[in-house]
Amino acid sequence: MTASKIAIAFPTGPCFGVGRALDVTKEVLKRKRPVYMLHPLIHNPRVVRELQQQGVVISPPEDIPEGGTVILSAHGTPLEIKNILGKKRANIIDAVCPLVEHLHRKAKELIDEGRFLIIVADPHHQETLALVSHLPNGKYVFYKDLDKAPRGIPIGVVFQTTYEYAKVPDVLKDIYTISDDIRIVNTICPATRGRQGVIDRVGSKYDFIVVVGGKNSANTKRLYEKAKSYTAAIWIEKADDIDDESIKDYRNILIVGGASTPVEHLIEVYLHFKKVIQ
Ligand code: SF4
Asked: Taking the CB of residue 221, how many other CB atoms lie within 10 A of it?
C-alpha cells in the first residue's frame, strides 16, 4: 500500500481577531466571574462550552444584571444592543476585531463622501447586523438586492470580512452595470483570504480534505464548499465525528481549520487520521 500523506494547512489556529477575543476573555475570567456574553464569542461550540465551564454565561442583553461584566464579540455588536447595556450600567469589554472596525469606518467614509453603498455580505450575519446599525437608512443596499440600488450615481462597495475572494470579480462585474463611478474598498480580511487561497492553490492535489470548525461558522462553511469543488471533503467539529470506515482508503489528506478553530482541534484530527490510515 502507498504511504499516506497527511498535512495541516497553514494558516492554522484562530485568526487574529478571534484569538484576541479569547485572550481578553481568559484575562477577564482570572479576576471576575460570571462574565456575560450576548452570544457565543466565536463560532466554535467546543471552545464556547469550555468557556462556559470557566464562568462565561450567555444571556440576552435584557437579562444581564445591573453592573454585570459583558464581553462583546469579535464580530461586532449592533448599536441598539450597546444602548441597552449602557442603560444597565454594564461593564462593557468590547472585543471587536480591529478589521471589523475597519469595515465600519470604511463603510461610513464611503457614505460620507456622497456614495450610495453596496454591501456584499450575508444580511443576517452578526457582523453585518452590527455594521448596518452604524449606517444611515436609505444610503445602502445589500448586493443581493442590487436591482433596488439607484442607477448612475457614485457608488461605494464593501465586503463582509469573510466573503469568498474568488466570487469578487463576478460581483464587481454586476455592480459596474449600475454606475461607472465606483470606489471599492477591499474589506475581506487576510485571514479569510489565506485560508481560502490555500485550498485554491493545493486543493486538487489531495484526494481528501477535512475541514474542521463549528457548524455555525460562516467562514468554515465557505471553506467546506470550496474544498468540495476540488476533491472529496468532509466538515467536522471534532475527531469523534469521523466515520473511520469511510476514510481508510484515502492516502493524501489535507486538514484545514476555520478562523475559530484552535490548533489543538486540528492536531486531534491529524492524530486520528494517523491512527486509522497508517
Ligand atoms: S476573520 Fe478576520 S475580520 Fe473576522 S475576526 Fe478574524 S481576523 Fe477579524
From this structure: 18
